[in-house]
Specification:
Shape: globular
Bound molecules: flavin-adenine dinucleotide, iron/sulfur cluster
CATH architecture of the largest domain: Beta Barrel
Helix content: 40-55%
Distance between the termini: 65 Å
Length: 499
């Protein structure tokens, strides 16, 4: 079975030598760097759970290419059932890590490119799709983690890629050679990239003919010559270097671990190029990838909501107020918000459809509604968690004070709750809520998979307001339903034809 365990995944990272910077220093070993460990553990969970018999159904799938059972994070969706299992997998992993487990962006890139490369080949008779399938076999056979790198730095947002003062603010081809291409530029905010095996790039927006050098998709190993990764800071990130207790979620961290990836004249062999110049397919790839990615959030973020709702309920109990009507009401409100997002995740998956490539994709209208809800409801359920937890989540003294021989006893005495709950456990739970409800996870819910405007554009496009106007006109007695008029006309034409 080509599936790595969590330990084998971490071991496999040791063989790579990416050029990574963090806090102004070069990181010699990604797996040994203390700040990165939580992210690596969270990603390792995507490997580990695939080996648990009770989760096999949702964590694994049979590959349509190699015919073997593979980790679902490398699978091309073959049915709506696959799409449903994918969001179930996301919720499960959110529950088990309490954070972003990173591997989904690469999964969505695999599926997005599978669909789009097929369509490009239909138009141009090119061989992108077959190349991509070869790459996919390699990913599945080696159970690789891929970073999905779509977002360019973008410079002046009002200008198109070719209009930018600095042409490198969108990743581009600078040279075409017989055996491959040379690329230059960068991708920003890329989740899990320092601990991925491959970096898969995609264009970030619609492109015109003048932007064809930017209409680009390829994959390269993370340690390819010319690639530099600069790791981003996160709220309270250095706490995990100081104290496990203060970190909140010491094992899995706070968000995915994002990096700015610089491509400094990187060579990419043609075998790994999946789009190069076909500008009219850039938007299709953006929308297909984004649709898959937005459909995930009602899975992963709802898994996180399960954890924060549990933490809030536990804190209320340890404060002796679990039966109070305001607390029960608030918890119910949190569940309602979370399950609304979950319903969207299921709905857009069940309402998915088959693309010409054979792969299944989600219902785009419902996936965008789902992600737009996430940009609001996550803030709301985290706000309610802050309400239940009280001010202590941002005023608690540090672990060093708690351990101090002279003053530690005061913290233990004055932060006690109900009998049967230790102060130490209460501190752990308060810190977890602080980590989840005050930290970087909030803007992640807002901006990850695109800003809310991007979702509204897609919702506007899928809304079919004209059809709704027709419906209203019929009910108001202004007009006949043009749909039925159309059917009547067809019947009339057929009748005439028979005569
Ligand atoms: C934690 C995290 C993880 C991420 N992981 C990944 C990843 O793995 N891979 C990846 O590819 N990307 C990733 N992203 C990037 C994410 O997709 C972007 O943050 C998002 O698309 C918004 O882009 P931006 O951050 O550059 O903001 P901006 O583009 O600067 O947007 C800021 C605001 O300006 C508005 N705006 C932008 N351009 C225009 C315009 N032309 N006209 C009018 N309004 C405009 C936007 O709607 C938004 O309201 C991640 C982001 C975060 C925060
Ligand atoms: S935010 Fe969710 S969907 Fe995106 S990479 Fe993290 S866990 Fe996956």
């Amino acid at each position: 079975m080509p599936m790595k365990t969590g330990t084998q995944y971490i071991e496999s990272l040791k063989k790579l030598k990416p050029k990574v910077y963090c806090f102004g220093e070069k990181v010699e070993s990604v797996v040994d760097y203390p700040l990165f460990k939580p992210h690596i553990h969270a990603a390792a969970m995507t490997y580990e759970l695939a080996h648990k018999p009770e989760f096999q159904e949702i964590m694994t799938a049979t590959s349509h290419l190699i015919g073997e059972r593979v980790n679902r994070f490398t699978h091309i969706h073959q049915s709506t059932e696959d799409l449903v299992k994918k969001v179930r997998m996301m919720r499960l992993l959110g529950q088990r890590t309490g954070t972003c487990f990173q591997r989904c962006v690469g999964l969505d890139a695999l599926n997005g490119i599978y669909v789009t490369s097929y369509d490009i080949d239909q138009k141009y008779g090119s061989e992108y799709h077959e190349r991509f399938k070869d790459f996919l076999r390699y990913v599945q056979q080696n159970d690789l983690m891929s970073a999905g790198a779509m977002s360019d730095p973008k410079g002046d947002r009002s200008l198109r890629p070719h209009e930018q003062e600095d042409p490198d603010v969108y990743l581009r081809v600078v040279e075409r050679q017989s055996d491959g291409i040379i690329v230059r530029g960068a991708k920003a905010h890329i989740t899990g990239s320092i601990n991925s095996h491959e970096i898969i790039t995609m264009p970030t927006r619609a492109m015109g003919p003048e932007d064809k050098d930017y209409a680009l998709s390829f994959s390269v190993p993370v340690d390819t010559e010319g690639i530099t990764l600069i790791f981003g800071r996160q709220t309270n990130d250095t706490r995990r270097l100081e104290s496990e207790l203060d970190a909140g979620n010491p094992k899995y961290g706070i968000v995915g671990g994002e990096a700015l990836i610089i491509f400094n004249d990187v060579f990419v062999p043609w075998e790994r190029v999946f789009m190069c110049g076909e500008h009219e397919f850039a938007l299709e790839l953006v929308e297909t990838f984004a649709g898959y990615h937005r459909s995930n959030y009602g899975g992963c973020k709802v898994g996180l909501a399960d954890v924060v709702i549990g933490a809030s309920a536990w804190i209320a109990e340890s404060n002796g107020i679990e039966r109070a009507s305001n607390i029960r009401n608030t918890l119910t409100e949190m569940v309602n918000l979370a399950e609304t997002c979950w319903s969207c995740a299921l709905a857009c998956s069940y309402e998915g459809y088959q693309t010409p490539s054979g792969a299944y994709t989600i219902n785009p209208l419902l996936a965008n509604v789902e992600k737009l809800n996430i940009t609001r409801f996550t803030y709301e359920w985290m706000r309610l968690a802050q309400d239940i937890a009280g001010g202590i989540i941002i005023t608690l003294p540090s672990e060093r004070d708690y351990e101090h021989p002279e003053i530690g006893k005061y913290i233990d005495k004055y932060f006690k709750g109900k009998k049967g709950f230790s102060t130490l456990d209460r501190i752990r739970m308060y810190r977890l809520i602080e980590n989840m409800a005050v930290g970087a996870g909030l803007p992640e819910a807002m901006q990850g998979a695109g800003s809310p405007t991007a979702m509204k554009i897609m919702i506007g496009r899928g809304a079919n307001i004209d059809r709704k106007k027709d419906l209203a006109k019929v009910i108001a007695g202004i007009d006949e339903d043009p749909y039925f008029k159309g059917i009547a006309q067809v019947k009339e034409d057929k009748a005439k034809a028979k005569v």
